[in-house]
What we know:
This protein is an all-beta fold and 302 residues long. Helix content is 0%, strand content 41%. It contains no helices and 16 strands.
Amino acid sequence: xxxxxxxxxxxxxxxxxxxxxxxxxxxxxxxxxxxxxxxxxxxxxxxxxxxxxxxxxxxxxxxxxxxxxxxxxxxxxxxxxxxxxxxxxxxxxxxxxxxxxxxxxxxxxxxxxxxxxxxxxxxxxxxxxxxxxxxxxxxxxxxxxxxxxxxxxxxxxxxxxxxxxxxxxxxxxxxxxxxxxxxxxxxxxxxxxxxxxxxxxxxxxxxxxxxxxxxxxxxxxxxxxxxxxxxxxxxxxxxxxxxxxxxxxxxxxxxxxxxxxxxxxxxxxxxxxxxxxxxxxxxxxxxxxxxxxxxxxxxxxx
Length: 302
């Protein structure tokens, strides 16, 4: 019997209910609820050395120029415009990019702007205007490449017979960041890694807006304490590795989920796979913030 596709609650990357243990795997059955089992490995830090980096909001400066001459640059961009949707959970346009930090300093709270343009070069507005096409990457370590994604709605109402504007190109720009020297102490910005462990596709023979996947990934966090989970980013790729777009989800300030130290397991479901997507090549990255998360959309005008 084929499993059901993700529910409406799983339409954006959102980790589900979890169980924390130390060094063992547990199976839990909850009536009517999806369960994610989390495995937490032994903490490698002692109680006296476990500390997070001291970070502050600080003045934002250009992401194009670091104090040491490095920069933040976009090394890969891809997008897809889905057919006029007849399924409420699917976006109209999915955009993905990879941002690289060539500096020796940490890029903290990097603000990234996505812009869609038509064939004449005119900006194509999205329904949400400012909140979707402005994303923030919590941490980009020196030399690191970090995915970023966004999905946009072009439809202003439920009349799906309207002629949507055609997106011909997208521009992804790292605008501002806070450059921070990596501390030499134990209280450092740590690496996080998300590795997909299972990808289950649904309805691949249907239209792009109805196709969906459920993806499970193992998150490895080298922070010695739980830090704020800002959300997950998915990038869609073809079987040749071509970037076809992506999706990201910023988390609300009242979301209690955290990035745990060690290894933990998460999953989510999303609708709206571009034509040519190879589900097995879906890339996932989870944003973990050791400081206070920001809300870039609150200060960005449409």
